[in-house]
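Backbone-to-sequence.
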C-alpha cells in the first residue's frame, strides 16, 4: 500500500486519509518488536511492554504509538465518514479507559521516569489530547495530559538552553506541538511556551542550516521557524523571520530546499530522513502561510515543500522501520 501513496490533487483526500488510517490501525496494537525507554531499578521492573504501558505499547515505541493515535483522531475529525471510522472508534474505546490511563500515570509516577520521553513524547501526548476535544475520550485521557503539562511547567524554567538536534530532543518541535493544548487548556502554560521560545531563539539570525545530519527527522532550522511562527504574534514574527532566514528568495540556505536522499529504508536511523523530508514540507508550508500576498519568496517555499513531500510520501510502508511512524508526519505535511 505505502508504495502506491502519492499526492493527489490539492493534498489530503478521503482516499489518502483512508490509506493513512489503515497504516496506523495496522500497528497501534502491535506490541512486538518494541523499543522501550525504560530504566530498570530492580528485577520487578522486567515487565512486558503491555504491562508497563497499557495504552501505548504498540507501534515499536511509546511516542510513535501516541502520535499514531493522534493521526487516527485527526483523520476521524477531518473525515468522519471514513470507512476506517468504526475501527478507529473501537480502538479508542478499548484503549482509552480509566484503568489504562491509571496504568500509564503509574508508570510516570516512578522516580526513574522523570525524564521519560522528554520532550518529544510529552508534546505528542498533549497534541493527541487536544485533538480529542469534544470526544467521549477527552475526559478519560485528561489526567494523563495534565501530568505531562505539569512536566512542561516544571522543566521549561530550568532549561537554560534549547536542544537543537534533528531528532527527539528538539525543543522547538516540542513547544510547537504543545501550543495547541496549552491554548485550549492552560493560558499560563501558553505564556510560558511563548516566553521560552523567545528566550531560546529570539536572538537567532542569519541561519546557516548545516543539515541534514545522517539520522535527522526534523530540520533544526525550519522547525525553529515554525515554532516561532506559532508562538509569536505576526508583527513580531515577521522581522524575526526575515533576520533568521534572510535569503529565502535566493533559495538559500540551499540545504533547506533540497530533499534528503534516503539510501536504506530498512535501517531504522537512515529512514529518519524520510521523516525529515515530510517534516520539512510541513514547516515550509507553515512558513509560506506567514508571507504576504505576492511575496517573491512564496514560490520558492511552495516548490520546496512539494519536492520534499514527493520525495518521501510514496515510501511510508517500505519497511516497518518507517511504517510505524511516518504516516503521522505525512499527515502534518499534507495539512501544512
Amino acid at each position: 500500500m505505502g508504495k502506491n501513496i502519492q499526492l493527489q490533487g490539492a493534498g489530503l483526500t478521503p482516499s489518502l486519509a483512508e490509506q493513512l488510517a489503515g497504516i496506523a490501525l495496522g500497528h497501534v496494537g502491535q506490541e512486538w518488536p518494541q523499543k522501550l525507554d525504560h530504566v530498570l531499578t530492580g528485577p520487578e521492573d522486567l515487565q512486558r511492554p503491555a504491562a508497563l504501558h497499557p495504552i501505548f505499547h504498540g507501534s515499536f515505541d511509546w511516542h510513535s504509538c501516541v502520535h499514531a493515535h493522534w493521526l487516527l483522531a485527526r483523520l476521524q475529525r477531518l473525515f468522519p465518514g471514513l470507512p476506517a471510522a468504526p475501527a478507529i472508534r473501537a480502538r479508542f474505546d478499548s484503549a482509552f479507559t480509566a484503568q489504562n490511563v491509571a496504568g500509564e500515570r503509574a508508570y510516570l509516577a516512578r522516580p526513574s521516569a522523570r525524564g521519560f520521553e522528554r520532550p518529544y513524547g510529552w508534546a505528542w501526548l498533549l497534541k493527541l489530547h487536544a485533538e480529542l476535544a469534544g470526544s467521549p475520550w477527552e475526559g478519560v485521557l485528561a489526567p494523563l495530559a495534565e501530568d505531562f503539562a505539569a512536566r512542561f511547567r516544571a522543566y521549561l524554567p530550568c532549561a537554560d538552553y534549547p536542544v537543537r538536534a534533528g531528532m527527539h530532543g528538539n525543543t522547538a518541535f516540542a513547544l510547537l506541538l504543545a501550543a495547541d493544548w496549552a491554548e485550549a487548556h492552560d493560558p499560563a502554560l501558553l505564556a510560558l511556551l511563548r516566553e521560552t521560545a523567545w528566550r531560546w531563539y529570539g536572538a537567532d539570525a542569519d541561519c546557516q542550516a548545516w543539515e541534514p545530519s545522517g539520522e535527522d527527522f526534523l530540520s533544526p532550522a525550519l522547525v525553529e521557524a515554525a515554532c516561532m511562527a506559532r508562538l509569536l504574534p505576526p508583527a513580531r514574527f515577521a522581522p524575526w523571520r526575515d533576520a533568521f532566514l534572510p535569503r529565502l528568495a535566493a533559495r538559500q540556505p540551499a540545504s533547506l530546499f533540497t530533499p534528503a536522499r534516503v539510501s536504506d529504508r530498512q535501517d531504522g536511523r537512515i529512514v529518519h530522513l524520510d521523516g525529515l523530508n515530510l517534516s520539512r514540507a510541513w514547516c515550509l508550508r507553515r512558513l509560506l502561510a506567514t508571507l504576504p500576498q505576492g511575496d517573491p519568496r512564496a514560490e520558492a517555499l511552495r516548490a520546496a515543500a512539494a519536492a520534499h513531500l514527493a520525495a518521501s510520501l510514496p515510501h511510508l510502508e517500505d519497511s516497518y522501520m518507517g511504517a510505524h511512524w511516518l504516516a503521522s508526519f505525512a499527515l502534518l505535511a499534507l495539512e501544512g
